[in-house]
Amino acid sequence: MRTPVTIIGAGLGGLTLARVLHVHGIPATVYEAETSPSARAQGGMLDIHDYNGQLALEAAGLMDEFRSIILEGRQAMRVIDRDGTVVFEEADDGTGGRPEVQRGELRRILLDSLPAGTVRWGHKVSGTRALGDGRYEVTFADGTTTVTGLLVGADGAWSRVRPLLSTATPEYTGTSCVETYLYEADTRHPAAAKTVGGGSMMAPSPGREIFAHRESGDTLHIYVMLSRPQDWFAAVDFTDAAAVTTRIAAEFDGWAPELTSLITDGDTAPVLRSFHALPAELRWDRVPGVTLLGDAAHLQAPNGEGANLAMLDGAELGKALAAHPDDTEAALTEYEQAMFPRSAEVATFEGAEMQGIDSDNNTAHGLLNMMAEKGR
């Protein structure tokens, strides 16, 4: 390929693209806003699926490295009613197709697989503009610029590359999440640790839900989902951890204490994360020399597929560019024609199946019925 690839964003999708390109001998540069690989915590656990995320890692030649970071036993799952009754439990026998890893470790093996200097840290994009003839100028916050003939936006929900292709912007889904952690849970929070078990735990209810995951060691990562307007959360002072905890816990009044303790006993200040999404059927006309992947292309409410889809996007785009070394537009067309329906199918299927936490069916028994219908 005569045109080096410029990738905006060193998340899992952008790094997978860079790695697959490297495997095929195609040069790429990744520009990342963060100042270093350790500048920010990289989130919690990810289940990497055998039908998308693992296919991407195979294309990247990193399956051995991936297997080395799998946390055994974390595919175990239990569903608990609001009164504390365990209504479903599934052990991890090692045969499941969704092994769990820490996001930070997955990002590390991708970074380690790239030539030194591939990622340019501390390059926050402030804008992009078309120069004509399929060329683009990217401007960074420090005033510097770069010009490229092949630009890939892997820069997430609020992509600075997306406006080159579409006027669509993410909209609030109606649900937000409050996160906290419990450390050394087996000794310091034994009741909570027992409730969560060895993998993940879900306690659903209409309009609210508690989800917890056992991460590496005996760390519990807690996600408290609430279906509330953004103004509701704006009225909560998140600089006052104790007040936030009290306010959020009040929404679970009457729930079993071993469940509410997952909120009240947190060892870290609660962090608010609002869920946004792009239209499920988002498309754009082919624009020479530019495309998107991952959340930049098809942001969805969390459904377990986001990271997997981003990685598969990166791998498929990389393979398409390698397959059409003298015809970038053919490669981008091939990639987008497969990516659009793939991501829309996931968004539509998950939306119909999960129905959102507002649904009257968002209960422990409702979740069991849904799982039975899906043949789990």
From TrEMBL:
Residues the entry annotates as binding FAD: 47, 103, 295
Domain FAD-binding, residue spans: 2-347
One BP annotation, GO: response to antibiotic
Pfam families (UniProt xref): FAD_binding_3
Gene3D superfamilies named among the record's database cross-references: FAD/NAD(P)-binding domain
GO cellular component, one term: cytoplasm
Catalytic activity: a tetracycline + NADPH + O2 + H(+) = an 11a-hydroxytetracycline + NADP(+) + H2O
Keywords for the protein's UniProt record, in alphabetical order: Cytoplasm, FAD, Flavoprotein, Monooxygenase, NADP, Nucleotide-binding, Oxidoreductase
UniProt keyword Oxidoreductase, yes or no: yes
EC numbers, comma separated: 1.14.13.-
Coiled-coil boundaries: none
UniProt enzyme class: oxidoreductase
Tagged with keyword Flavoprotein: yes
Domain text: Consists of an N-terminal FAD-binding domain with a Rossman fold and a C-terminal substrate-binding domain.
Primary role: An FAD-requiring monooxygenase active on some tetracycline antibiotic derivatives, which leads to their inactivation. Hydroxylates carbon 11a of tetracycline and some analogs.
Protein name: Flavin-dependent monooxygenase
Provenance organism: Streptomyces bingchenggensis (strain BCW-1)
